[in-house]
Design brief:
Blueprint (H helix, E strand, L loop, with lengths): L2 E3 L2 E4 L2 E4 H7 L4 H31 L11 H27 L9
Antiparallel strand pairs: 1-2, 2-3
Length: 106
């Protein structure tokens, strides 16, 4: 499978979330594919939310120079963190599954 470094499993030189690998590696392919499809759909929703937050930030009035970048930018950064965290989940599941399943548009 791979080696563990700093809490992640290295699969083919890619970082993977070892708890997800452990939870899913012995699932039947059908079940693993269903979970992977759910994760891909969640990633799409998070991507769309991050894009919306980006547009809100772009349209927000400028924030005076100070101790904060403002609520619109913070909301965008938080949305991007959520999206990238979910991308790591998706990548790990795809590595365990071994292929990219067909996921129709919502």
């Amino acid at each position: 499978m791979g080696t563990v470094q700093n809490g992640t499993v290295q699969l083919e030189h890619k970082a993977a979330l070892s708890p997800i690998v452990g939870l899913t590696e012995n699932l039947p392919k059908r079940d693993l594919e269903a979970i992977t499809i759910q994760a891909i759909r969640a990633h799409r929703r998070l991507r769309d939310a991050a894009e919306a937050k980006y547009e809100e930030w772009r349209k927000a009035p400028p924030v005076p120079v100070g101790d904060t970048v403002g609520p619109a930018r913070l909301a965008y950064v938080a949305a991007m963190i959520d999206m990238h965290a979910q991308q790591t989940v998706v990548s790990t599941l795809l590595d365990v599954l071994g292929h990219i399943p067909l996921v129709p548009a919502d």
